[in-house]
Each structure stands twice: as structure tokens, then as C-alpha cells.
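Action item from last week, closing it out:
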Amino acid sequence: MTETATAPAIGAQGSSTEGRTETEQDRRDRVRAILEQDRPSDTRIIAMCNQKGGVGKTTTTINLAGGLAEHGRRVLVLDGDPQGNATEAFLVRPPGPDELTQAQVVVDGLDPLPLIRETKVPNIFVLPATLDMAGLSYDLRESGMGLLLYRTMTEKLRGYFDDILLDQRPALDMDTDSQLVGSDAAMIMTDVDQWAMTGLTRQLGQHKKAMARSQRDALDVIGLVIGRLQKPMGHFDAKIYELLQNHPRVPCLGEVPIRAADLKLARHHGLPVTHHKKTARTDTAEYFRSIVTNARLVKAV
């Protein structure tokens, strides 16, 4: 739970291997060798989702990864949003203009392991997003089998990670549907807003449609996380907050305060709030640790 001061250069191109500058191929080989060691027996793929934007999906994804890593789990943050905020949050260098991208891997059915980058936290890795993913929904539709293509990629990642957290963009589209089909379960982020319940209903409806179209069993919805929470709140917001806490179909796993300074400080250093030396013991870090245990992603200590 301490900040790693001697981490390798993020993206690894600037690091040194036996006195020489590490090439991109060196980096790929080194990361693959790490992932081949102590491979887990099972992998759990969780879509972090809500078609509504600004509800804390990426913040929850980043810091949930930190909570899982504290328990020794090897975690991949799969950045499914072309904005690349989850990639940037770990200070990971995305692929350059002439390098392989996630969009290419998904559409062409290529090996995703060369895309994976290390972070400052030994147990956390990132599969970065790039801007060419902005046209991914169109490419998936044109392929004629786009609903299944993310599943093709995520299946190739099984057995290398204990957990894969797939950070989705705020949309109901072919790419987000394909990402849902490529997942085992979902966690829904929401906020205390008059449209929160509507957004939850739409998201759950989209899960049902995507699973039916792909002839899959219903997607396991682990629960919801209330993000961007601000207290005290007015009477109207308090009513919505109560409804979210007692949702009839989705258990509430916890809540995260709005724009906590701790989150920004840790993110500035490319770390989850659970791993920065100045934030690891704060209430904010404990929120994410409690979400990890409330969701039964790890055994409570």
C-alpha cells in the first residue's frame, strides 16, 4: 500500500535492459514473461458501465483495481473509452500512430498481449485506449459479427489476470454492447441525479438485449456504486439517494465522495488512492476497499 518510487518507466521504452535502451519488442517480451508467471486458474471480467456520463466509472475502475491489487490479485484495466482517461490516469503511454491499437486487435482478431502496459503498481496492468476507437462501433457493425468481437479478444486474455475491469464509454452502441458480451459480469456506476433511476433501467435493459442477441445467459450484475456523492443533500436528492441504496434489482455496494482531493493527488502520480503514501490511509481509500469486499470480489479480512 505504499507508493512505488522505483517503478519501471511507464510504457517501458525509456527503460534500460542490461545497459541498453529497451525497444518496443523488448518491452512486449518482458511484459509477456511477467504475465506467463504464476498464471491464475480463473479470470473474472467485469464491465464497469453506465450509458450516462460523469458518474464516476473511470474513477471507480482505477481505484477498484487498487483495492484488488492490495489482495494480491493481478488486475488488467481494459480501457474501452476512446477518451483514454483510464490509460492516462496510470500515466501509461498509449500506442503511437504506427503501432498496434486496441481497435485493430478487436476488429482483426489479433493477439492483445502486445498492447498490455505495466503501471507503477506491480499487480496492475493497462490495455490502453486510442482515438481510433471513436469509429469502432461502425467497424464492428460493418464486420457483420461485431457483437462477438470483444469476446474474442477477452477470451485471449483469460488465464493471465485474476480480474479484468473493462472501463466503458458512456453510450449504448455496438462497441459497448460488444464489451458487455465479452464480460462475465457488470458493475454499474451512478450518481444522485433525477435521471439516475432512468439511466439504471436503460442500462439493465441494454444488458438483456445484448445477451439475448448474442445467445448468452443473463449478465451477472454485481451491484451499483454511487459516485460523486455530496453531503448534506436536499430533500429531493435524499429521496433519490434512498432509492439507489435500496434498488429492488441491484444491490448498492458503496459510495464515493465528489471530487475528493485524495483521488486527484493519487491520480497525479499515476496511482490508485489505495497506493499513494499520502492517501492510502484516508477515508477515500477505505471507500474503495469496502466496495471490493462488499462486492465479494475478495474475502473480507
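Closing note: The longest strand covers residues 220-229.
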